[in-house]
């Protein structure tokens, strides 16, 4: 499909630079089939049934943005995906000034060798020394806010908390699973009282989620892979919930993509541990999920393609037109939507 089919005009005023306070006071656009209704995230329990299951991603964002030097050249690095205990794949700014075998000094006694350059232009960085890389990043790194926020304001101490979900446990993401940023202890208690269940999986979101689609046709786009895990007990409970008439609702496109990667054509969710580069576009047949809670995405992005696959392109164009006109806030710190295709 042509990528320009997924374009739309978004006023800059609709881009959120800070999250709602409290988190569950953000707007929520309920899309049930082709019917739209406006709500607040704290009202989510009234929109779900007592057998429904929300599936959250417990990945934790690490301070994966680094600024350093190689000689007199300034080098920026955004870590994308862990290779092993000391190596990370990274997207490099000013990459023309960095060659394989050279060392980048990120300050605070954090050094990394450019060990290899991959076909997509990214590098494998080998962090030197004996200290765990996690400690090096805590010392020298900053939160990797999306470009559409970082280009408009400086990263500050608030972001260290604002850009983590309440479920964040497993360190390894370089982008937050932002749909879950809206949840609070109070909201989770209200959902439990309403009989709505929850399950947890892990997908370490990579920096590739921010990369623009630069090709003209979706078939030509190469998705970056990300590591995820669903254990056997979680898969069994999700399958049982669906068999009992409940709906599996992914909280965020990260949860959705991992669930779909773990599910066969028979609709059975299976244990999964490994890389996935699933790319969902219109025409895809969903196997694992019955709904999606997600923020509002960039024009021509793979994530807008995904929601268009779930709800239909015409419906999603109408949804985004409604959201823009209604003052909904877009992107990582923005408002939310609940997409239920069989409304």
Automatic annotation (TrEMBL):
<dbReference type="Pfam" id="PF02547">
    <property type="entry name" value="Queuosine_synth"/>
</dbReference>
<comment type="similarity">
    <text>Belongs to the QueA family.</text>
</comment>
<keyword id="KW-0671">Queuosine biosynthesis</keyword>
<protein>
    <recommendedName>
        <fullName>S-adenosylmethionine:tRNA ribosyltransferase-isomerase</fullName>
        <ecNumber>2.4.99.17</ecNumber>
    </recommendedName>
</protein>
<dbReference type="InterPro" id="IPR042118">
    <property type="entry name" value="QueA_dom1"/>
</dbReference>
<keyword id="KW-0949">S-adenosyl-L-methionine</keyword>
<comment type="function">
    <text>Transfers and isomerizes the ribose moiety from AdoMet to the 7-aminomethyl group of 7-deazaguanine (preQ1-tRNA) to give epoxyqueuosine (oQ-tRNA).</text>
</comment>
<keyword id="KW-0328">Glycosyltransferase</keyword>
<dbReference type="InterPro" id="IPR042119">
    <property type="entry name" value="QueA_dom2"/>
</dbReference>
<dbReference type="InterPro" id="IPR003699">
    <property type="entry name" value="QueA"/>
</dbReference>
<keyword id="KW-0808">Transferase</keyword>
<dbReference type="InterPro" id="IPR036100">
    <property type="entry name" value="QueA_sf"/>
</dbReference>
<dbReference type="GO" id="GO:0051075">
    <property type="term" value="F:S-adenosylmethionine:tRNA ribosyltransferase-isomerase activity"/>
</dbReference>
<comment type="subunit">
    <text>Monomer.</text>
</comment>
<keyword id="KW-0963">Cytoplasm</keyword>
<comment type="pathway">
    <text>tRNA modification; tRNA-queuosine biosynthesis.</text>
</comment>
